């Protein structure tokens, strides 16, 4: 079975401190992976998980003032876009989603 989990990009998953939704997504991802489920977690790319990690933003917008958390679009993130173009440890899709 394959499962995709969508985590908010306000805080890292699992959160360093505050981040209740990120904590729930992290617990779900880790529990499902431990049971042998093929899980992809979509969250900020600094997230820590046993699941496959996909995302469109390098760091959470609450931890990086260069991101506008009210309306985040790939085009407003020069860091994520330029990092994706030069990264050798990840793959970027045509939609801007990165995989690690």
What can you see in these coordinates?
The chain has 100 residues and is α/β, with parallel strands linked by helices. It has one domain (2-79). It has two helices and five strands; from the N terminus they run E-H-E-E-H-E-E. A five-stranded mixed beta sheet has the order 1-2-3-5-4, covered by helices on one side. Helix 1 links the parallel strand 1 and strand 2 (38-42). The radius of gyration is 13 Å and the shape is globular. The model is unreliable at 79-88 (pLDDT under 50).
Structure at a glance:
The chain has 100 residues and is of the alpha/beta class.
List keywords for this structure.
alpha/beta, globular, 100 residues, 18% strand, 5-stranded mixed beta sheet, 2 helices, 5 strands
Give a topology summary.
Layout: E1 2-6, H1 20-34, E2 38-42, E3 52-55, H2 78-86, E4 91-92, E5 98-99
Parallel strand pairs: 1-2, 2-3
Antiparallel strand pairs: 3-5, 4-5
Oligomer: single chain
Q: Please count the beta strands (DSSP E, at least 2 residues each).
A: 5
Helix/sheet category: alpha/beta
The end-to-end distance, rounded to whole angstroms, is: 20 Å
In terms of DSSP E residues, the strand content is 15-25%
What's the rounded overall pLDDT mean? 79
Largest sheet: 5 strands, mixed
Globular, elongated, flat, extended or rod-shaped: what is the shape?
A: globular
Q: Figure out the total of helices.
A: 2
